[in-house]
Fold this sequence. Notes:
Blueprint: H1 10-20, E1 27-29, H2 30-40, H3 43-50, E2 57-59, H4 62-79
Antiparallel strand pairs: 1-2
Amino acid sequence: MSDGPKSWSDEEFIGYCSLHSRTERALFHRDHVRRMAALAGDEALLERLSAGDAPEWFSVNEYVMAPLVTQARARLGTLRV
Length: 81
């Protein structure tokens, strides 16, 4: 049995984020958004999430998540060469 996103591989996690961002609420925990930002190499987003006042939950629709997914997949492909 899986422990959820924390135990998923990077590929599984990116796929989850891609699909979940298309749901009605598309609610993500701050840690999940932070992981996607790290996988995508989005340093600016990582800095904003590291601020002490960052909310715990984010609604991240597919229009916001799609570029992160694309960047993360590209980086994973590059990192595994």
